[in-house]
Specification:
312 residues; 78% helix; MetI-like fold; mainly alpha; 2 domains
Length: 312
């Protein structure tokens, strides 16, 4: 297990380096980036300062080192808002984490439950009903569901707050009320996907040789399902969850945050793109990619714990 973790760590470092290089190359491919960074009506002194600060007047490898230094030391500044980008991301990250963790728990637990029930009653009315619900959830756009919930549950009925965010430290109860609708709107799509994937995997796994052997040993149906079938069927679910969760943290919940006016990383990215503010877009792109790779590495370690054959 130690060798596997060591090899995975080395590959992780290589992938992170490659991501930083690709992101840097995309950024430098923009023609005259100093004009984009300087805003409207820049002076020649401002342009010269930006060229020197970002290394536009130096060789490409020096420019790469300078930009990475600005990012990883937290000194990169948004030129349209004149704020520290890394600091802003840390300010918005608790909102995104609240949304991602709550929604992730919902879509993972409910998706596994629906998948188990569908596989257990495959071909029966329960399976068909859950299939219809899953297809509706997969087909429901997040912005549409969020807008409907916000209008009917928030404005018309007044059961829950329609928008905005309250810190957990300020009021745990208000924080919960403000997050229920965003959690539900974000998790519906994933519930449908996870339940379908788990159902298919379980139905494929129950016919494997090791499952028949476990039944022949006299194990109960529940023991066979939990110890053998479900354990191996969870591998694709863990893959999906790791990638989806990392994508949401890295700004993938743009629509949800926008509909419910949650000032998270996703909404910050959308506002930066709209304003053509390059430094936040650069940092958030790297942040999202790094989150996917890091959580992917953790998922690989969990794989190795679930299935020792993967360690080889």
């Amino acid at each position: 297990m130690g060798r596997f973790v060591f090899r995975r760590t080395l590959s992780l470092i290589g992938v992170l380096f490659a991501i930083s290089v690709l992101t840097f190359l995309i950024f430098t491919a923009i023609p005259h980036p100093e004009l984009q960074l300087a805003g409207r009506f820049p002076t020649e002194a401002t342009l010269a300062h930006i060229r020197h600060q970002w290394g536009f007047d130096r060789p490409v490898y020096i420019r790469y080192l300078l930009i990475m230094k600005l990012i990883f030391t937290g000194q990169i500044i948004s030129y349209t808002q004149q704020v520290n980008v890394v600091h802003q991301i840390w300010v918005y990250l608790p909102v995104t984490l609240s949304l991602a963790i709550g929604a992730g728990i919902i879509w993972l637990s409910v998706g596994i439950l629906f998948g188990l029930l569908s596989a257990w009653r495959a071909g029966r009315w329960l399976d068909r009903g859950l299939t219809v619900l899953s297809m509706i959830g997969v087909s429901m756009p997040v912005f549409f569901l969020g807008a409907v919930l916000s209008y009917y549950v928030g404005f018309k009925l007044g059961w829950l707050p329609a928008s905005d965010y309250v810190k957990f430290t300020t009021s745990p109860w208000e924080w919960l009320k403000h997050m229920i609708m965003p959690w539900f709107a974000l998790s519906v799509l994933f519930i449908g996907v996870y339940s379908r994937v788990l159902r298919s995997t379980i139905l494929d796994t129950v016919n494997d040789d090791y499952v028949r052997t476990a039944k022949a040993k006299g194990l109960s149906e529940r023991q066979v399902m939990t110890r053998h079938v479900l354990r191996n069927s969870m591998i694709p679910i863990i893959t999906l969850f790791g990638l989806d969760f990392a994508a949401v943290i890295g700004g993938g919940a743009i629509l949800t945050e926008t509909v419910f006016n949650l000032h998270g990383v996703g909404q910050y990215a959308a506002q930066s793109v709209q304003a053509l503010d390059i430094p936040p877009v650069l940092v958030i792109t790297m942040f999202g990619a790094f989150m996917v790779v890091l959580i992917g590495a953790v998922i690989d370690v969990v794989y190795a714990m679930l299935d020792p054959r993967i360690r080889l």
